[in-house]
Design goal:
The structure is a single chain. This protein has a two-stranded antiparallel ribbon. It is flat. The chain is mainly alpha-helical. The longest helix has 25 residues, at about 125-150. The chain is built from 6 helices and 2 strands. The protein has a single domain, classed as dinb family like domain (Four Helix Bundle (Hemerythrin (Met), subunit A), Up-down Bundle), CATH 1.20.120.
Length: about 180
């Protein structure tokens, strides 16, 4: 049986993998095309990627009992490369933090203040599900915008991640024989 902890460790590792898939596709765009990416809510790809990072950092802080440090922040990085690197690093750091949490943490609730400064209480699995689906949602938006500008369509589905990880483990076993 899979525990909540193991489930969310798979999920955050998947987030890192899927971000890399997206970034590899977006790296096919030239600077002009990259700067033309935007949608109704974010005028640039950089803005949306910043939103992804802000969301991750705010929820991570809330899960630690810290007031969300970037609750009113919309942009942490003004450079696409710095943004990608920060999102990669913070996603991995969040994964390592989750790994250190006891199993019980994943069955508890947290109390935090939302961006309107109202106190809320939510179950940790609900919060983590929100974070993971929010990141996937915005990654999908970025992929759609990038493909309209000519980037290849990245394969970012969870099942593709699981297959790639299974293949990797199989190759490791074959090397040990």
């Amino acid at each position: 049986m899979i525990t909540w902890k193991k489930h969310f460790l798979y999920q955050i590792d998947y987030q890192h993998w899927a971000n890399d898939q997206l970034f590899a596709a977006m790296d096919q765009l030239d600077e002009r095309a990259l700067n033309q990416l935007g949608n109704l809510y974010y005028d640039t790809a950089l803005g949306m990627a910043n939103h992804m990072l802000v969301t991750l950092l705010n929820w991570w802080a809330r899960m630690q009992g810290i007031v969300a440090p970037h609750a009113q922040t919309t942009q942490l990085h003004a450079d696409w490369r710095a943004m990608k690197q920060a999102l990669r690093q913070e996603t991995r750091a969040f994964q390592h933090w989750l790994e250190k949490q006891p199993e019980q943490f994943f069955e508890d609730s947290i109390t935090y203040h939302n961006t309107a400064n109202h106190q809320q209480t939510s179950w940790v699995p609900d919060v983590l599900t929100h974070v993971m689906t929010n990141l996937a949602h915005h990654r999908g938006q970025l992929a759609a915008m990038a493909t309209r500008q000519g980037a290849p369509l990245p394969e970012m589905e969870f099942i593709a991640y699981r297959r790639e990880m299974a293949d990797h483990l199989m190759r490791l076993k074959e090397q040990q024989v």
